[in-house]
């Protein structure tokens, strides 16, 4: 089943995708709905008394607009580790983003004038359902509400200023997410899905989620030893090879470029790079 956050009569609302139409819920986004129902995404499907809107009239937004936490993995694909000339890590390489970093699945993204190394990274996004604290790898997937697509747009010049990734990963409104939250059963827990990214129609990344070094279950278990994962939180699982910084010569995004990011069975993002002052919708 697919769920979304949509623009409805000038406000954001969590909604259920029925193919030809979306059923509106009273919640402003899926993160808030998951918190209300303690992570039970299917409880939303029981809501019947609210309005519906034709699918052709829907504007899809980032499904998790208000996660309490956004945890990201770096260097989680062997081929990406190699192209970045790094050593394979013994433990997951974690960094965080903030809700203000996220943007909508089809929004334009402003290239900041201060960076000349704007890069792309298609990733599987994991949306947490049930709270997870000290969970085992065996039980970890029971805490997942569903999956989405993330493009971890990165600013390599800022990322490489220090040994910490954060400043190159949190530029405002630069990480598109969506367009749907797809339930676990639809994609077999994202075990082996094709992941692709194109720039202006040229294939840059072409990998599979089965190539992850640390699996989704291992990552949830590991993070849950550190802190409590809560309903509506987002984990972004890292990217395969093909990023701009790993190419010879390096290639980065410029205004006018269009990125198409897709994960098999989950959906696709389309984002145009624009200059400051341009419309982002």
TrEMBL record:
<dbReference type="InterPro" id="IPR011234">
    <property type="entry name" value="Fumarylacetoacetase-like_C"/>
</dbReference>
<dbReference type="InterPro" id="IPR036663">
    <property type="entry name" value="Fumarylacetoacetase_C_sf"/>
</dbReference>
<feature type="domain" description="Fumarylacetoacetase-like C-terminal">
    <location>
        <begin position="69"/>
        <end position="274"/>
    </location>
</feature>
<keyword id="KW-0378">Hydrolase</keyword>
<keyword id="KW-0479">Metal-binding</keyword>
<dbReference type="Pfam" id="PF01557">
    <property type="entry name" value="FAA_hydrolase"/>
</dbReference>
<comment type="similarity">
    <text>Belongs to the FAH family.</text>
</comment>
<protein>
    <submittedName>
        <fullName>Fumarylacetoacetate hydrolase family protein</fullName>
    </submittedName>
</protein>
<dbReference type="GO" id="GO:0016787">
    <property type="term" value="F:hydrolase activity"/>
</dbReference>
<dbReference type="InterPro" id="IPR051121">
    <property type="entry name" value="FAH"/>
</dbReference>
